[in-house]
Amino acid sequence: MLFDTHAHYYDEAFDADRDQVLSALPGAGVGLVLCPGCDIPTSQASLELAEKYPHVYAAVGIHPENLDGVSLDHLDQIEAMAAHPKVKAIGEIGLDYYWVKDEEGQKRERDFFDAQLDLAEKLDLPAIVHDREAHKDSLDLVKAHPNARGVFHCYSGSVEVAKTLVILGWTLSFTGVITFKNARKAIEVLEWAPLDRVMIETDAPYMAPEPYRGKRNDSRYVSRMAETIAAVKGLPVEEVVRITTENGRRLFGI
To answer: What is the CA radius of gyration of the chain?
Structure first.
């Protein structure tokens, strides 16, 4: 059974058929889904979905694009939610310099990332990291938290950064981007990456893989990532499914 380690099922794109989609996943070969929050309301929504569906688990955190009107005191609410047994990570957290260009805004992102890595260490939970055009600062902050662990989701960095993250004990996760024709850098990382440090995800409803690119994404399409990795590694698809699911279960304590 596949494990989609990152999907946002509270998103409005699923408002019309959320229950239908989530209920059908085990029958479609997807045995586990982890749904990460991006702020207080969506973290709560993720937790409610995890309570409703046995195969769904939650992560709670504040995304770097969702910091407006938020103070570090709000992390007390994240910590309280994290006590729930179906919350398996702190996330989605990290840095996004694609949207935030000013130094003040980037420093605010770093402060929240730093504080949420502290929380992950305190609670002994893995972190789910968003790193967009902020590779150096993301790596520096992870290095500053030697007891933190987790995954860089939708990995977009270089092979060199990937090697450092793996040495530090982190995992790399890959989306439908690896199925795109221009995905050369991600494929280079996959060619190098030890399979025991690789996970797969959809990031639904975003980034649907080929041949579904441009459509709403959901966890049924995570099989395309397993197929692509199998082709890169020269392994049977079933072996990639088994290993990536084991990796996810181990990281998230499921």
So the answer is: 17
Please report the DSSP string for 62-125 in residue order: --GGG-TT--GGGHHHHHHHTTSTTEEEEEEEEEETTT--SHHHHHHHHHHHHHHHHHHHHHT-
Percentage of the chain lying above the pLDDT 90 cut: 98
CA 174 – CA 164 distance, rounded (Å): 17
Count CB-CB contacts under 10 A for residue 68. 7
Furthest-apart CA atoms within the chain: distance in Å? 48
Contact 37, 43 (CB under 8 A): yes
Within its chain, how far is the Cα of 160 from the centroid?
A: 20
- Alpha-carbon distance of 217 to 206, in angstroms, equals 6
Residue 193, sorted as left (phi over 0), alpha (psi -120 to 50) or beta, turns out to be beta
3-state SS, residue 216: coil
Non-local (6+) Cβ contacts of 166 within 8 A are 172, 193, 194, 197
Please provide the size of the chain in residues: 254
pLDDT at 21: 98
- Beta partners for 32? 3
Written as one letter, the residue type at 182 is: N
Pairing of strands 171-174, 150-152: parallel
In which band, very low, low, confident or very high, does the pLDDT at 96 lie, cut at 50, 70 and 90?
Answer: very high
Report DSSP letters for 117-155, one per residue.
Answer: HHHHHHHT--EEEEEES-HHHHHHHHHT-TT--EEESS-
